[in-house]
Amino acid sequence: MVEQSLLLTDLYQLSMLEAYAAHGMAETAVFELFVRKLPPNRGFLVAAGLEQAVQFLESMRFTPDECAWLRDSRLVSPAFAGTLHDLRFTGDVEAMPEGTVFFPNEPILRVTAPLAQAQLAESRLINLLHFQTVIASKAARMVLAAPGKQLLDFGLRRAHGAEAALLTARASYLMGFAGTATVLANRVFGIPVFGTMAHSFIQAHDDEATAFERFARVRPQALTLLIDTYDTERGAAIVCALAPRLAAAGITIGAVRLDSGDLGRHARAVRAILDAAGLRGIRIFASGGLDEHGIQALCRDGAPIDGFGIGTSLAAAADAPVLDCAYKLQEYAGRPKRKLSEGKATWPGRKQVHRRYHDDGSIVADVVALADEPMPGEPLLQPIMRGGRRVVQLPTVHQARAHAASGLAHLPKALKRLEPEAIPVQLSHGIRHLAAGLDAALDTAPGRKPPS
Description:
Blueprint: H1 11-22, E1 28-35, E2 45-46, H2 50-58, H3 64-73, H4 78-81, E3 92-95, E4 101-102, E5 109-114, H5 115-120, H6 122-145, E6 150-153, H7 162-174, E7 179-180, H8 183-189, H9 199-203, H10 208-218, E8 223-226, H11 232-248, E9 253-258, H12 263-276, E10 283-287, H13 292-300, E11 307-310, H14 312-315, E12 325-332, E13 335-336, E14 351-357, E15 363-370, E16 378-379, E17 382-386, E18 389-390, H15 397-409, H16 413-416, E19 425-427, H17 429-443
Parallel strand pairs: 6-7, 6-11, 8-9, 9-10, 10-11, 15-19
Antiparallel strand pairs: 1-5, 1-12, 2-4, 3-5, 3-17, 12-13, 14-15, 14-16, 17-18
């Protein structure tokens, strides 16, 4: 993970903090993080990244060196820079648990804190929650497209930086991937790691048989051999000839990997070759430019593929790499606030999301209501921090997997398809009434030009 520096922020956050301080604006503010609309080809999103967000808030402080640098840089006044060493997060947080399915305009996190603290948290909170939510939502589609198949994250080399690679492994594992090829994810998060070999290993040898056998004798555990460097079916035949000799040494070939060409056609041919040699226990694993649509097509066609390694389309969320994600002020000094910017208006007040279910456990609809507005259904935002300290023990990523799996299982059938479709999200009477009152007051405020 990158260093948790408060200088990893937007300059305007520091500029606003200095202005707040100059005018004594230190009352309690309420900010909520939400997504305005779904990207194309998405029927839902999945909240992820809460653990890293809470860790950030707990460690939110400027070091003496950073305060000195700000003073010397003149990005803020020297006097204001001298006050920043005392800044800590002392506020409250409510959030949806990681792995929770959510929909547009539903807050997934609410921060209630003195204005400067809540404001300064914005940039990094969006950075952390947005990215893992993007990846988790992409991974969820892949899990739904390939029920019962082993999915692995192969995205390190195509991820946009080191932190992104590590958090891709985390977010995809949260959603049901079996593991990752990224070694550091095992050390940091305890996520299972998997690996095969590169084509360069095969090419470095004079022939495939020698390459396979040398690799097998050095790395016999969970042995997977890459067989498409030259000719896929010929590679499968070499595996068949090698298997008895390895078996005599107590080495079992667990799988072969296909990484190119028509994966469905090659998988059928390889399966036939292996079965004819009595090697029905060897699994077939596929990789190479796959996304959820390609995976689903292979599964629907009955291709005898047991698992998939997914890189670019996962780590870069290639078809929907960004969300229209916002962190907006909803209340200040006890008064509700509403933004009316064209195309970016917000609903005022601190809110709760209530979810109703069918008898079979599938989602019926969500209602976004004011936090103190009585409403049937399961409240999704839960207390996480009070006074800057955790009031619950956050689940590990291993524990959160179960919640994520349950969320996917309870999706309506229409949302389990890859074609876009959205669950009904309703706004309560209380929110609409509050918004109408604020709009009316704004229209009659002194200096406000009446609408034409």
